[in-house]
Structure formats: C-alpha cells, structure tokens
Amino acid sequence: MGLLTILKKLKQKEREMRLLILGLDNAGKTTILKKFNGEDVSTISPTLGFNIKTLEHRGFKLNFWDVGGQKSLRSYWRNYFESTDGLLWVVDSADRLRLQDCGQELSKLLKEERLAGATLLIFANKQDLPGALTKEAIQEALALDEIKSHHWCIVSCSAVTGENLLTGVDWMLDDIAARIFTAD
Amino acid sequence: MIIKASAAVGGGVERSPRVSLTQKKKKRSCHFRKQSHFSNMETATEASQENKFATDSDGAKIQERIQKRNQERIDGVERRKEEKETRSVPEENTEYFSRTFQAELACIEELLSHCSGEDRAEVVRKLEETTTKTAQLQKFVNDSVMFLTQYELRRSQAALQKLQSSITEARDKAMPKKKFAFRARTQDTAPPVAAPPAQSGEVDGGGGASEKSPPGAATPAQSEEAPEQCGFSNREGELLTKTAEEIRQGDVLLSHLSNCRVRLFGSPSTLHLKHIDSCEILCGPVSTSVFVDHCKNSTLAFPCQQLRTHHTTDTQVYLHVTCRAIIEDCQGVSLAPFSWSYPTMDADYAVSGLDRDRNNWSQVDDFNWLAFRTPSPNWSVIPEADRKTSWDD
C-alpha cells in the first residue's frame, strides 16, 4: 500500500460515522431507522438481535446500529459501544409508566467509558399518539439538564409520520462533524 | 480451523518415526528379547524356538503391530476430523456466505425483473415476495456479521441497499395508489384522539408521580390522569364489557383483574393488560400493539399488529397477529389462531387496518431463548383438539 492510498483511505474514513440507536423496547428504534431509510414501516416486528444500515446523508456515510431493547437484550448493548460517534436514545413519549426505567437505563449508558466521547441525541418519539408527553416533560423526567458529560439535544418526533427525524439527525451530524472532522 | 487441521497432521507425522524407532530397537536387542518373552504368556512357546525363526515371526508381528498402529493413527485423525466438523458450523464460513448471498440476490433480482405487467394482483404478490426475501437476506447478513470481514460486510450491505431502492422504485411504479391509501388510513386514526395541549402539561406531573410511587400503585393513578384512556382496574369476579363507541380507537388498559370475563367490542389503538389472574379477555382488532404483563391462568383472544408478552405464566392466547408475537420472562404460554367473532367485527377490522389474511400466530420470538435451532420450551401451540371453539356465554 502506497502512502497515497493510506491517505485516501484515511480521508474516506473521516466522512464515516458510527451511530448507535438504543432505547427501551417498543420505543420505535427500528421504525425510526427504516423511516429514515425510506422503507416500509408497517411490517416491523420487535427486534430480536440487531439491524445494521449504512446510508449516505449529506455526504457522510452513516453506519446505524439498531439493537433490540427488550430487557433480556440490554446486557448485550455494551458489545456495540466501541468507537461509537453518536448515541440516539429513543423514548416512547406515550409510555409514562416506564419513563423511570427509561431514565435509569440512559444514565447507566452515560457512565460508560466507551461512550464518553459520543454525542447524545434524544428522540421523544410517538408524538402522533394522543397521550404523548411533550419533549419538555421528557427532558424533566429524564433529568437531561443534569447531563454535563455529553453534548445532548432532545427532539420531538414521530417515526410513523417521519416528522422531525431529519432535524434530529442533522443536529447530530453537525455536532459530530464539528468534533471530529475539524481538519476539513 | 486451519491451524487445528495442520496440528492434527503434525501429530501424525510425529508419530510415524517413533514407530520405526521402536522397530529398530527391537531388531537390535535380540538377546534381550528372550527374557522379555518369558514374561509374555502368548509368546511363551516361541521362546524355545531358534533365534532365526523367532526373528522372522517377530518381523511379521512387528509389521502387523506397525500396521495396527498406523491404522489407529489414521482412525484417530479421522475421528478428530469428524469431531471438528461436527463442532464447526458449515454456515460460518465466508465462502458459504458469499455463495448463498449471491444466489439469493440473483434470485430476488430475477423475481423483481418480473414485477411489472397487467395483472395488478400478481405484481403485488410478487413485490410482497421480493420484500420478504430481501428482509430474510438482510437477516442472513446480520447473523453473519460475526465472522465476515469489513469488506464483505460493506459489499453485501451495498448490494442490499441497491436492491432495496430498486424494490421501492418498482413498487412506486406498480402501485402508486397504495401508498396514498396507507397515509390516509393513519390520518384517519388520528382525529378522534386529538388531545388538548393543556392536558399534556398536566400529564407531565403524572410522569413525575409515577416515578416515585411503586409500579403497582402507579397504574390506577395514571388512568385517572389520562382520561382518553379507558379500561377497568381492581375488579374481581365480574363480567365487564365495552362497546365500540366507548373504545373508538383509544388506548385500553385492564389492570389488577381476577376471575373476570371481559368483552371489548371495538377497535382500540393499543391494549394493555397488567396483573391479570384467571380471566377470560376477548377483544376486537387492535390496530397497533397489545402488551401483556404479569398475567396468569388466563385465556386471551384478540387480533393485533404486535403482541408483547412479559412475565406471564400458563396463559392461552387465541391470536391473530400481522407482524410477530414476542415473549419475555414467560412460561407455559400456549397459542392458537384467533377464533372469536361478534356481529360488528368486520367493521372493526376495517377501522384497525389489520390485514385479515396475514396471521403469524405461530411465529413467536422468545427473548430468553436465543438458541438457534432448538425451539423455546416457554411456549407451545395448543393441539387442535384442545382448542376452544365456542365463546358464547
């Protein structure tokens, strides 16, 4: 491999990001991923295992890792932490009963050393449902204001209608790009 | 794998010189042999014979022994080889992966190329098939991630991506109207449930309250704060019914019921069942998910898009599910196809938007049972003879 090829490879790699999608079960992680990719969302089943999708957006190559959120799968989440640039935390805004669970799982993640450098985007999903909490309410319930270790942002969205998905991901890309692609 | 194989061969090579060495030793130590033969019962007669004679027959014996050893060695190698083959999964090698992947890809592309023409139903059917096949292929790739190289993974992902976009293209071309119909349906479900914004502010306090109180106590309090949710809580030994007017695409919550018979005529948006003991719960088509948590000794029946079952024991579910059912931390869950019916059910099916022809009731994912080929012991199918056929009171 010549020096030029190495440089080229490095350059290519720079435009690549690894994004990890996590959240409790039934939060809508797979639906967000599929909707973002323009696929049919009406036939999604609870994720047993994980999905990976690579897509191009604004000249970036995004590697999405969507890992199942069932209780029994959460212990496997840490297998996916390595070299993650951005963490998408998906919240089911209509599921008030488990908001506490949701907050606990999130704070556990934020203590993870391997996620220390990652940008955190919180999707307050399912805004199309009647009983959905507002993003302000979720911000309070998850005590997001206390997060000092990560850059974070909360965006209300609906995976079913696709509302605000782009806004959220764009914010995340900007934040990650500003952090790691400063050479450009 | 390769390292192991070469090690096995090495063992074989190592052994054969040792055999020839012993052979030489025996030839050289003729005088010593006599003594040793005395101790050997089988060759006791040989000992009295002449030396030359003995050497000949010994030569044959040694030959025989060498052959026997050689055979043993070959057998050993064979056995190890077999063992290795049974241990390693043939599916876990890159060559197999790329071969299968390419074959499947070609098959799907072939199918896709026929997805045009006059017969709309046929085209729709074919598109459906390509979609499911693509999903299967994606799953195959996902399952293979562990042993694939980055390059292989990227290549297969790119191929899938291309395929996915051509399917979308073909679908748009073949049935642009269907997409519109789907959107109309989701909008249809939205209007009756529109909640005033002030209410969600109030609900915010509810979230805080449920944070502090234990989950059991939070359930009834929560239903008070969200008036758009209907249901029953803390009942015992009653017959409970709800009509289509009461349900109207809302969320239904049933909690802390024991020995009750529940009939929900109508199409809820979601159905939550929590802390249910010895009940019979029948419900009309649920347009999204049904959540079952802490339920025991009960019989349930409903059509839905997804079923998520947790902490449930000894419960029968008569199910129509268009996506998939999952269980987690459950035992003794048994399933059969949905068989209840009531006069206005067809209309409720139309409201829910569920596909009546697609029922995956027997495809259950157990999240506590990740073994690949062996079925989960936590759920079973109710034998046809034991299924309930009449639901009348």
From TrEMBL, chain A:
Keyword Ribosomal protein: no
Residues bound to GTP: G23, L24, D25, N26, A27, G28, K29, T30, G69, N125, K126, Q127, D128
Listed GO CC annotations: centrosome
InterPro entries associated with the record: Arl2 (IPR045873), ARL2/3 (IPR044612), P-loop_NTPase (IPR027417), Small_GTP-bd (IPR005225), Small_GTPase_ARF/SAR (IPR006689)
Native source organism of the sequence: Pleuronectes platessa
Binding, Mg(2+): T30, T47
Residues forming coiled coils: none
Keywords (A to Z) from UniProt: GTP-binding, Lipoprotein, Magnesium, Metal-binding, Myristate, Nucleotide-binding
Protein's name in the database: ADP-ribosylation factor-like protein 2
Major subcellular location class: cytoplasm
Keyword Lipoprotein: yes
Entry's family note: Belongs to the small GTPase superfamily. Arf family.
Compartments (UniProt record): Cytoplasm, Cytoskeleton, Microtubule organizing center, Centrosome
GO molecular function: GTP binding; GTPase activity; metal ion binding
Domain of life: Eukaryota
Short name of any one Pfam family annotated for the protein: Arf
Automatic annotation (TrEMBL), chain B:
Domain C-CAP/cofactor C-like: 220-369
Region Disordered, residue ranges: 1-91, 185-232
Biased composition (Basic residues): 23-36
InterPro entries (UniProt xref): C-CAP_CF_C-like, CAP/MinC_C, CARP_motif, TBCC, TBCC_N, TBCC_N_sf, Tubulin-bd_cofactor_C_dom
Pfam families, sorted: TBCC, TBCC_N
Residue spans of biased composition, Polar residues class: 37-52
Oligomeric form and interacting partners: Supercomplex made of cofactors A to E. Cofactors A and D function by capturing and stabilizing tubulin in a quasi-native conformation. Cofactor E binds to the cofactor D-tubulin complex; interaction with cofactor C then causes the release of tubulin polypeptides that are committed to the native state.
Protein name stated in the entry: Tubulin-specific chaperone C
